[in-house]
């Protein structure tokens, strides 16, 4: 990288980010999960640190390492764990970004011993997890709260619904059915929409570049609100 100085426009801001999937345990050897490499959330954490923020990254299980030793990383496993840690840090945060792919369901019963396979089909009863983002939206005071929406169809419509229902300040919508967007890869294509419904299309780019753009939009919108 070039020796260019970066404006530390997030200096003095506490940024809380969640990343990765969650694992919902069935028994000691099995779990349910969602597709998510964690790369978008990690890119956001690294970009926020680069722009001067004090960053806490709450991540579900991923194989990623964080490059910066300035980032406080907290590893969690399940949606319930992520809920607890996000609430623990929420009140003292200025910007909160939920890039995690949280499981919507978790097994009703967890078996303490490995379930032995049986002839025929298996049915597992699942219950809903808590909606972490919604729960934060309901208690937020000064925090700038940003969600993600990964959709396969009608992505803008579904994304705007989530923006409103979860009391968000902005949402980052990505259509995972588009080539170059979504899970696993190093690139993404997203639409950032703030609560005044102003839309910013971010074209195909690395997750790092997209993370930096998202943070610039957040900073712009936080400054606009103060006027
Ligand atoms: N989210 C969350 N807790 C959950 C489920 C989702 O905090 N239990 C957050 C995600 O981290 C993301 C946003 O809500 O920022 C949208 O997640 P998404 O899965 O797209 O939406 P859902 O509300 O779960 O609706 P659905 O999966 O039915 O589209
Ligand atoms: Ca979901």
CATH architecture field = 3-Layer(aba) Sandwich
Radius of gyration: 18 Å
Name the bound molecules.
cytidine-5'-triphosphate, calcium ion
CATH class: Alpha Beta
Q: Which word captures the global form?
A: globular
Number of beta-strand segments: 12
Mind telling me the CATH superfamily name? CoaB-like
Please state roughly what percent of the residues sit in beta strands, choosing from under 5%, 5-15%, 15-25%, 25-35%, 35-45% or over 45%. Answer: 25-35%
Can you tell me the residue ranges where pLDDT is under 50 for at least 5 consecutive residues? none
Main β sheet profile: 8 strands, mixed
Q: What is the CATH third-level topology name?
A: Rossmann fold
Strand order of the largest sheet: 5-4-1-6-9-10-11-12
Give helix % range.
25-40%
Structural class call reads alpha/beta
How many separate domains make up the residues?
A: 1
Q: Topology as H/E string?
A: EEEHEEHEEEHEHEEEH
Number of helices: 5
In round numbers, the mean pLDDT is: 95
Catalytic activity: (R)-4'-phosphopantothenate + L-cysteine + CTP = N-[(R)-4-phosphopantothenoyl]-L-cysteine + CMP + diphosphate + H(+); N-[(R)-4-phosphopantothenoyl]-L-cysteine + H(+) = (R)-4'-phosphopantetheine + CO2
Keywords: Decarboxylase, Flavoprotein, FMN, Ligase, Lyase, Magnesium, Metal-binding, Multifunctional enzyme
Region (Phosphopantothenate--cysteine ligase): 15-227
GO molecular function, one term: phosphopantothenoylcysteine decarboxylase activity
